Amino acid sequence: MNDLKQVGFDASLDHQSLVELSEKLENTKKEVESLNTKLKSYHDLTPNFYSAKVKIEETKLELNKVDRLLSEKMDALGCVSPEVNLLK
């Protein structure tokens, strides 16, 4: 080992140390990948609170429209539909 130190060998570069560093690197890569996946799920969100509220209201209006259309279609077919509004 003294011969290695004389030629500039660094103990942090021995096989065991490199294996441990490699394992840490793999674990870190997996963690970053997991965090990136979680982050991507937030990219569709609007950054502005008021814009988000507007988007929610637009979606509620669209849902009401679809609900009315469904009720009309069911009435046209003679189906009995309960009058349930999930938004109230």
Automatic annotation (TrEMBL):
GO terms in the biological process aspect are: cell division; spindle assembly
List keywords of the entry alphabetically. Cell cycle, Cell division, Coiled coil, Cytoplasm, Cytoskeleton, Microtubule, Mitosis
Q: Which Pfam families match?
A: HAUS1 (PF25762)
What the entry lists under InterPro entries is as follows: HAUS1
What does UniProt give as GO cellular component? cytosol; HAUS complex; microtubule; spindle
Give the coiled coil ranges: 18-45
User: Where, per UniProt, does this protein localize?
Assistant: Cytoplasm, Cytoskeleton, Spindle
Provide the primary localization: cytoplasm
Q: Which family does it belong to?
A: Belongs to the HAUS1 family.
PANTHER family in UniProt = HAUS AUGMIN-LIKE COMPLEX SUBUNIT 1
Instruction: Give the protein's recorded name.
Output: Uncharacterized protein
